[in-house]
Design brief:
The structure is a homodimer. Chain A has about 190 residues and is of the alpha/beta class. Helices cover about 40% and strands about 20% of the residues of chain A. In chain A, α6 crosses α8. The longest helix of chain A has 15 residues.
């Protein structure tokens, strides 16, 4: 299985606005393993950048500290493979900042594809997303932490990707697992 | 995408014998998120049990404590979806104990499929593994922690599954990501 093109697909892990167990909008805390797992995944599938989105100053500093340890600190020498993954991470305050960065980098507006564990009105399936990517235009995949992306983020996205289904009724994957399955489904032949 | 059969596939996360960065055989420590992520994944894909293998008494107790919190303790009420996932976990001291449990449960010897980030002599590809599973016979997928399964485990397995490739040279996925991609590739239509 090989990727037939260098994907123009960016990934953003959203910590605000997301919802909690009760459906309220919150800013979630950053989970260290999310950074490592999704950065390694992005590197494996040739994703050019992995954005970590949080408006909280202390959380932004925390992510920068982790990234710095593995890219320029002791971690870079201890585990060069990890350096190659974590150097894809960019911390941004908002989705708007992410979109501005992609525009600056590629010269093109990015289309935004939200994800959810439930079907949404603007759903596209994995096959349709693969076709969209073939155009070479930039796409940004949004992953939600906590209980998922807030309704306003999903409503503002150009598309929502169909939920990952494993053939059972159970739809409670971790964001790390969902990210792995989604990238594999859309980026391998 | 739907699973066309109830898979007779079991998953075991091995903490001994695995190798460290220097290729030495070690017993690794259990990572809490491995338990949650892989249990949720197993539940999503209809895997009947998820074995956590460690010979260390304190680690075994730790896993049992985590599982008990989410299946019969406060966590079971707080998050019933998590209960449904973690109740698939069984802690075993060795691979031998896992095989004995599957024999007792199904009345049949299980075939063992090891995983590795590198190609191995007895490699089968994802398509071949899917076909083997269609027979309905029990199969056990081994996942390694730390720097991967020891050579003796791989040599003793019936097969080794081809490595997950994302179209780049980079082959350093977390065991959580690899598990997600592998189950999705072999269990969805």
């Amino acid at each position: 299985m090989k990727v037939s093109y260098a994907p123009n697909l960016y990934v953003a892990l959203i910590h605000y606005p997301v919802i909690n167990k009760n459906g309220e909008t919150i800013a979630s805390a950053v989970t260290n393993l999310d950074l490592h797992d999704i950065a390694r995944l992005a590197r494996t599938y040739g994703v050019p950048n992995f954005y970590v989105v949080t408006p909280l100053v202390d959380q932004k500093r925390l992510v920068e500290k982790v990234v710095s340890h593995w890219t320029t600190g002791y971690g870079a020498t201890y585990n060069p493979a990890r350096k190659k993954a974590l150097e894809l991470i960019l911390v941004k305050k908002s989705l708007g900042e992410v979109k501005a960065h992609i525009l600056e980098k590629t010269g093109r507006e990015t289309r935004v594809v939200a994800t959810s564990a439930r079907s949404k009105p603007k759903n596209i399936d994995f096959g349709a997303f693969r076709k969209l990517l073939r155009s070479g235009k930039p796409y940004l995949l949004l992953l939600g932490t906590a209980w998922g992306l807030s309704d306003e983020v999903i409503a503002a996205a150009d598309y929502t990707l169909e939920p990952v289904c494993g053939g059972t009724e159970y739809n409670h994957l971790s964001v790390r697992s969902a990210a792995a399955i989604i990238l594999d489904r859309i980026l391998t032949l």
